[in-house]
Amino acid sequence: MLDFKQVKGMKKMKAVVQYEYGNADVLKYTDVEIPKIGENEVLIRAAYTSVNYADIKKRTGNKGKGEFPLVLGLDVSGIIEEAPPNSTLLKGDRVIAFPKNGSYAEYVVANEQLVFKIPHSLPLEKAATMPTVSILSYILLFEIGQVQESDTIVIHSAAGGVGSMLVQLANLAGIQNIIGTVGDLGKENYVKALGADTVCTYETFTQEVLKLTNDQGANVIFDSVAGEVSNNSLDCLALFGTLVQFGNSSGEAGTFKTSDVHSSCRNIKGFSLGTTRKHNPERLAPVAKKVLKLFESNEVTLPVAQVFNLNDVEKAHKLIESRSYEGKVLIKINHSL
Known about the structure:
This protein is 28% helix and 26% strand. By secondary structure, the protein is α/β, with parallel strands linked by helices. The protein has two domains: 12-129 and 302-332, Quinone Oxidoreductase, Chain A, domain 1, CATH 3.90.180.10; 133-274, NAD(P)-binding Rossmann-like Domain (Rossmann fold, 3-Layer(aba) Sandwich), CATH 3.40.50.720. The radius of gyration is 20 Å and the shape is globular. 44% of the residues are buried. This is NADPH2:quinone reductase.
């Protein structure tokens, strides 16, 4: 539990705090104490943070229960303000990071294993689009899905942050047939511009995939929606294919029979970046290095849908919930960085 006692004389910062679960209006822009670093931790002066659908689920209490007061936010770009002795990180280093107690704040603390230096040629705003979605997408595509150039793949929610990155990485890797799904075909041109060959809706993708593959099905399907989308994905997953499940933005669980898997030699693999950050953080540094190079060279990029100020987080959450955006939604925290 975070300690936000208003102690006289303590240095303060602005943060967005919630004291109860609920709608976006539970997010309160307020003064809190600047956090202190512990062993193997650094203090970061935040420049930008991204808004992810996981933030919405956590705000409403649909992503596990936490203790109040609570600060949301998964990742941050910024400048090292304080580092422990003998650290490889120094004051003034430009970094991206996964803070330990949320990122909707002017200063955040992060474990050194979850902090990654960024090149000076990479703007902090651009860097802020990438930590969660890019590292996650790279692991999903190449380590979990183990895609091959000859594969047909399906990427659900292809216009979202992770979807946008998965499409680009798959295109860069030369994947033969990339199919993206969206809730609104108004996003079709956006997803095709990222590198998708075909874009369809959640209502029609099963039939479209079977038609495009001569009833063979997709080799790998990336699913962050769950519910009926997972069920329908199994209806168009090829023999020996893999369903990669990494979220449930629908709020519903997908279901399947064991015979759907063993008799067809298909796999269902799960992955959570949050679990990996907590239990296997050393896995992330090599991936961060690879995706940072891709961003620095402009081989991949994530379009910014909109940038909000820290005191406008409520509006940012409403935009995410509307699903009427393409790319990443960012919060600008410090205007001097």
